[in-house]
Each structure stands twice: as structure tokens, then as C-alpha cells.
Fold each of these.
Amino acid sequence: MAQPKILLTRIDDRFICGQDIELWNEATGSNLVLIVNDEIAADSRKWAPMRVATPEGVWTRFFSVQRTVDIIHTATPRQWILIMVAYIALSRFLATALSARPCPMPRALQAR
């Protein structure tokens, strides 16, 4: 199984908002934006505005925290992932959960 290519984990409760996501996407070269948030993952009505704001050619996924931990390791080598979370405690949890498996910790979390 290939290791997921997590390019960056960004902490921002706005998640995907216009120019901001375009700048981060351009800087990282990601082709998949993964929003990790239990509330948003459970309500598909909240997805549409974020999908519209995502640059063309970039996929978006909306996963709960548990689903992210369970399936992030199934990402294909061609998926270059930008993870977005709402608060730092969640990013630390994900880093801990992912480090327990054969997966490199996201660069943005290595110094924490």
C-alpha cells in the first residue's frame, strides 16, 4: 500500500474560501482538498459552496475525523492532498493517529 502524499495540513475554520484556497493550492500543487470536520461531513448541503470555490481540476472530499483516520492510507500515489481542519487540537489528533500507522506526518505538524 502506498503512503498518502499529504502536502500540507492547514488550520482554518473557513475551510475553502475563494482566493485563499487558490493560493494554497498553487503553493502546494495539491489535486485533492480534504476537509476533515464531523459536522460538515454529515451535512452535504454545506459542501456545495466549498466545491464552487475550489479551483478547476482539484477534487474535494468531506470526511469525518474517524473516516479520515480509517481510509487516508488508501489514497493513491497520484492524489496530492491538502488537508484542512478547523482547529489545532484536531490537527494534533490527526498527527498522532496517523503516526501510529505507516504514514509520514504532515510537514505542517512535524514541529508540534
Note: The helical segments are 19-28, 38-41, 47-53, 65-71, 88-99.
Amino acid sequence: MDTASMTQTAIKAYLEQASREEKLALIEQLTKDSQKARQLVLDFYGPIFLLYSIYDGAEEKESVVDILDRHVDSFSQIFQQKATAVK
């Protein structure tokens, strides 16, 4: 597994298990700005909760999962870029 895949997997696992405060703290570390961090949390979780509700009624559930995967991948790349920029 390459580094990008490992980072993505770690972020997915963390986001599934961490509390809201832990998630916000992680994003604050990446952005160095609590207001930007709060907005990123909303930008990330808003579509996820929408996709949860769409998934429940979808006939083609796999298409919803694909959208969710792309959304998480996109944010994973953003987090990775921010982490690299902070170093």
C-alpha cells in the first residue's frame, strides 16, 4: 500500500472513531485557524449526512457509496496537502 493510500485509510479510520472535538482539533492543527477548521468540518460532514439519507432510499446504493468515497478522497487530499504545508 502506498503512502497516500495509507494516509487515506488512517484518516477514514480516525474520522469514523473520533469524537467531534477530536476531529475539530485535528483540523485546527492543519489549518492553524479555528474558524476555518469549523467551516471545514461543516463542509466535510454536511455532504456525508446528506448521502446517509439518500443511501437509505436509493435503489442503486453503490452509486451513493461511490460519491461518498470520492468526497472522502477529496478531503483526504486536502488534509494531506495541509499537513505537508505545515511541516
Note: The CA atoms of residues 30 and 81 lie 9 Å apart.
